[in-house]
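Sample intake — CAF17 C-terminal domain-containing protein
Collected from: Oleiharenicola lentus
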Amino acid sequence: MICFSASAAVLLARLEAYLIADEVELRDETAEWANWLVWGGATPVLTLPAGAQIFVSRRAGSPAQEIIVPVAHASEVAAQLSAAAGAADRNTAELARLRAALPAVPTDIGPRDLPAEGALDEVAISFTKGCYLGQEVIARLKNLGQVRRALHLIEGDGAPPAPGTALFQGERKAGEVRSGATEGGQFLAMAMLSLVHLDPAAPLGLAPHGRGIKILRRV
């Protein structure tokens, strides 16, 4: 299992909780592998070592590839990538993800959120497989087709508000910022907003009756 946002310790603890009678060994191999995300053009031609893996990724929205190699070969692969493609910082990668409206787990949608609040029911939930923990909640959401909150893309001037920053529409608290990135003096961010009383065409603010933040669309 590969996860780019959650801590390995938290993920292992979560998986352990679902092991009841299965003979499964879970191990953190983070330190044994090096990883790169390549996007924005043709995949560079690389000479990869034994054990390397390359697969299509959704993290940047546009066609992208994840490259994972044993850490002992990280420097040689990094040198090839540096010669074939430009390096991007974390903010640039976050911008690509946000433009594609792809939630980061658990930053944008976590254990206290419902999958449908981040449109994960469309890509990560099976409604036909056998019994599993939490199936009743998922089935109810599918049958009712409603959630009371949802992730939205928002934009404004300056740096993105810190994760957890409250957002208001009029006098009501509308939700909170989950993640963000900057571009040209503005920010693009993901926010979890309550759908009750929300006006998608009205601005948001960082205080009651505040303005200056635009809702772009629901994820």
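Post-analysis note: The longest strand covers residues 172-183.
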